[in-house]
Design a protein that fits this description.
globular; 5 strands; 15 helices; about 350 residues; alpha/beta
């Protein structure tokens, strides 16, 4: 195996990873600005394609909409029980609920305005990074090569979707020989069947043949920076990954409850993190057996309320059943319609 070293790091970040920026907090986004500094200092050469830029423009609205749904889930939608109206502090409580609702509306409106103006925090970081990239145009030759690749069944890509094949052919056409490439993507079409953290052997051999160099893949921007650019500290994101790992690997009910408590402070999760959390609920009995405990159920029902639309029908029904109320009415047509009820008292943690 050739040593994986380069004076200048050649990096390609896929669309699905860029879209995660819209779920990152300000501290993580500020850390990612250091990547722009590394590019300006000629330590990194960041590649992109016209295909990636188009995909970002197409998908940005949907990704931001998911975050707005998460914000809407914070609203205290449940009515106060009549008996509470007799309490001395009832009016103060109602005023606090009303003030909180108005503040949420103001925050939502501000985010929508920033979205319309292209001024979200993630927009600004992406704009800075993409302004420094080497963008590969999608020529007719690249497009035809991508079609041939998909028609022949060669990775990356699948029937009916040329995006990954276009990006790969673009990189093959633009990158010079003997330049190692770091690939940051969650797309399984690039991954090996036995280990999605590794690049497909087909692509590894193709890259070696065409470029006489190596290719290495990462599924998360935090993993890439920790391994290759440790000076870029994505501390919050790595802490979140650790806590997700604690839940996935939970070996007892007590560990599950502790892991859930630690994760409740996060309001946004990336697509891959959501997939990992749901897979853990299905496969780890220490989660599944207590799926209807208040804290576990509330956490996952909120996750489904925001991200359930990305699941296929069968998977969504399966998770709805797993986290449904034990005493729910038979005619209740939504297992998580009232998920916000669980967060009235601790909404600041979300």
């Amino acid at each position: 195996m050739r040593a994986f070293r380069a004076v200048v790091l050649h990096v390609f970040i896929d669309t699905n990873v860029y879209l995660d920026f819209f779920r990152f907090g300000q501290d993580t986004l500020d850390a990612l600005r250091k990547l722009a500094t590394a590019i300006r200092d000629d330590h990194v050469k960041l590649w992109t394609t016209e295909q990636v830029r188009d995909e970002l423009r197409r998908s940005r609205e949907g990704r931001v909409d998911e975050s707005l749904k998460a914000l809407d889930e914070l609203r205290p939608t449940s009515r106060m029980p009549s008996i509470a109206r007799n309490l001395p502090g009832y009016q103060a409580l109602e005023q606090a609920r009303s003030a909180f609702d108005h503040q949420l509306s103001d925050a939502r409106q501000e985010l929508v305005e920033q979205f319309d103006d292209g001024k979200l925090a993630a927009d600004l970081v992406l704009e800075e990074l993409l302004s420094l990239t080497h963008t590969i145009p999608v020529s007719d030759e690249i497009l035809e090569a991508a079609r041939r690749r998909v028609d022949r069944g060669n990775p990356p890509g699948k029937k009916g979707s040329l995006g990954d094949a276009i990006n790969w052919e673009a990189l093959l056409s633009a990158c010079k020989p003997k330049e190692n490439l770091y690939l940051v993507t969650r797309d399984g079409d690039y991954g090996a069947h036995m280990d999605k953290e590794r690049v497909s052997e087909f692509l590894v051999h193709e890259w070696r043949r065409e470029k006489e160099s190596e290719i290495k893949a990462y599924q998360r921007i935090s993993s890439f920076t920790a391994d290759v650019l440790p000076e870029i500290m994505l501390a919050t994101e790595r802490e979140k990954e650790t806590r997700i790992g604690n839940l996935i690997n939970s070996g007892s009910f007590e560990q599950t409850h502790r892991a859930i408590a630690a994760l409740r402070q996060y309001s946004d999760f990336t697509e891959q993190q959501v997939a990992d959390l749901l897979a853990a609920a299905a496969s780890n009995s220490q989660i599944g057996w207590i799926a209807r405990d208040d804290d576990v159920q509330a956490f996952y029902r909120r996750l489904l309320a925001v991200h359930g639309g990305n699941l296929d029908h069968a998977a969504r029904e399966r998770y709805d059943d797993l986290f449904a109320d034990a005493d729910a009415d038979d005619d209740d047509d939504s297992a998580y319609t009232d998920a916000s009820d669980y967060y009235v008292d601790d909404r600041d943690e979300w």
